[in-house]
Each structure stands twice: as C-alpha cells, then as structure tokens.
Fold this sequence. Notes:
Blueprint: H1 8-22, H2 29-45, H3 49-57, E1 67-69, H4 78-81, H5 90-98, E2 108-113, E3 116-121, E4 131-134, H6 136-147, H7 152-165, H8 176-186, H9 193-200, H10 217-222
Antiparallel strand pairs: 1-4, 2-3
Amino acid sequence: RRGQATASGSIFSEALASFEAAQPFALSATDGRLLQTLRARVYLLTDEPLKALMAAQNGLKPGDVPFRVLFSESAPNPWFTNRTIVMLPMRLAGIVKLIPEEAARIPVEEVRTLGKTVFRVSKYSNRTTPMVFASWQENELILAELELPQNVQSARARVNSVRSIYDLSPLTQLSAQGVLDERERTLFGTGLRLLDQRRNNLWPPSSGQWQYLPVSAVERSRNPNLN
Length: 227
C-alpha cells in the first residue's frame, strides 16, 4: 500500500501500534498469546531483548494452533507463483543432501534446466496453500536465543522441542549460531530470513558485481515456462 520506501523503524512502530489496537479483539487466550509472539518478534528485530523476552514468555505455547495467511486463486501464494523464478542457494540444498531428514523443514525439489540442476521451494503445493505467519515454534526459538547466554540447558530444551516436531534427533550442544541455523531451517519459506540477516549482519559471501535480470509480470503470466 506504500508508494515509497519506508524506514524499518517506522514499520516496526506501526506494527506495535497495530498489535495494541488488536488487543481488545483477542477473544481467546490463544489470540492473546499470538499478539505477544508478534510483539516478541518485533522487539527481537529492534534489538530490545528484555522486551522481547517478556513478550515471548507470554507468547504461543507448544500445541497452540499457528496463525496462517490464507490465499485464493485471485490472490495466490507468492511463494508458489514465484517458485520458478527464484532459485534457492545451493547451501540450503546441500543441507538437505547432507541431512535428508531436514527435508521436513526445508522442502526443496531439483529441477533440470538448460543442462543444469537448480533447486526451488516445494513447501507450497499450489496457489492457495496457506503460509504459517506465526507459530509456537518461532516463539520457542525466540526464547532459546534470548535465554542462551545465561541458561544453555533451557535454550537447548526449547530447540529440541521444536526439532522433535520434525522427528529430528535432539542436539547435545547449542551455540548462538546454532540457534540461528535452527531459525533458518524451521522458519524456511516464511520471509523471516532476510530480517535475521539484517539484524545479525549476515550476508552471503560474494565476489565481483551482483547482477540480476528483471522479469516483468506480463512476461511471467505469458511464459508457460514460468508457470
């Protein structure tokens, strides 16, 4: 809805104000916990750990139903419609190759094109597949990240509770980078990776110039190879 770029600080402030305005409409305990998880997310991004911790401690709990974004044929899931023009980094595909069990969290598929193998997101099966916007798994990982410096055992238990959902073996050790890895894999395909890269100054290594080829919406809609 915006016609020009907006500073992230303004967006975060607007989000917090929206959560406050939504509070009277949180008719169930789960709704209230959802708002707290969303607050915790924003406070994590704005580097306010104490506020993030307080919000997450009252956020979604294991077993709570996730909040999903719904799509339709007229307003399709962009992760699905863009799956043919956005290639995954080989690093993520390499994780699945090395640890096949991670396919439960990182659904990818191989595609042969022009004699080369590339990988694309297969998390969303069609145009109307919902996307999880907030979940208790994210909340547990927020708590794990914030607790880790003082309480490694509690942080590891939270991470392992998330891993158990995907039938992954529990971790015996956990580092700060390990928590970020768990976030990347658990929250794969939800749009949070870029935010984590920004707040932690984690950018993929590169050499030379970054180049791109814009593909217009008209071309995407007319080209059967991009369907």
